[in-house]
UniProtKB/TrEMBL annotation:
SMART domains, alphabetized: GuKc
Residues spanning the signal sequence: none
Protein name: Guanylate kinase
Domain Guanylate kinase-like as annotated: residue spans: 2-195
Keyword Hydrolase: no
Gene Ontology molecular functions: kinase activity
Taxonomy of the source species: Bacteria, Bacillati, Bacillota, Clostridia, Eubacteriales
């Protein structure tokens, strides 16, 4: 049966790096589910890879067509940015085909996807990094941007402490945590768990 692995973690936890490694692993043979956002593209991001980049008109069109599984609005220092997950009928059609997917999400998107696709299909992969290390990584990434948004980086860091609280993780049914202090070791542990599910 199909599995959808949702990579979850605070900003700077390494989700994008893990995603790239997992999607490239031919043994895992994972297909990507690409989310949507109305925020501006970052340097080195590409349409349809990290996100589908749209505007509020595009979001409203999908809302009106009842194609949204979940959406979140972040009130940033640069205005409201929406992130959302759209329905994909191909996934439902392929449930019995053992086609497995990976998606970068949040606790909230994981819960909504679990409600939509089923808890036996949607599996969380929660990446955890010590806050000081995470902040250093986020700052390093932000410095590479053409127009660094340091205030937004700080807002996200503080918001993540609330959004990813132990209480919220427990309510969502997320108990397993992958410690990302050694990337290769953490990646090996995630791959091993995925192989157990699909093998």
């Amino acid at each position: 049966m199909t599995k959808i692995y949702v990579l979850i973690g605070k900003s700077g936890s390494g989700k994008d790096s893990f995603f790239e490694e997992l999607i490239a692993d031919k043994d895992l043979n994972l297909k990507s589910i690409v989310g949507y956002t109305t925020r501006p593209k970052r340097v080195h991001e590409s349409e349809g890879v990290e996100y589908h980049f749209t505007d509020e008109a595009g979001l409203n069109k999908l809302r009106n067509e009842d194609m949204i599984i979940e959406e979140r609005c972040y009130h940033t220092v640069h205005g409201d940015w929406y992130y959302f997950t759209a329905k994909d009928e191909k996934i439902l059609e392929n449930i019995e085909q053992n086609i497995n997917y990976i998606y970068i999400g949040t606790v909230e998107s994981f819960v909504k996807m679990k409600e939509y696709y089923g808890s036996d299909i949607v599996i969380p992969l929660y990446i955890e990094v010590e806050d000081g290390e995470r902040l250093a990584r986020a700052l390093k990434r932000e410095r590479k941007q053409d127009a660094p948004k340091y205030a937004e980086m700080c807002r996200r860091f503080l918001a993540d402490c609330e959004d990813f609280s132990e209480e919220n993780l427990e309510k969502a049914g997320i108990s397993k945590k992958y410690e990302n202090m050694d990337f290769d070791k953490c990646l090996a542990e995630i791959k091993e768990d995925i192989m157990k599910n699909i093998g």
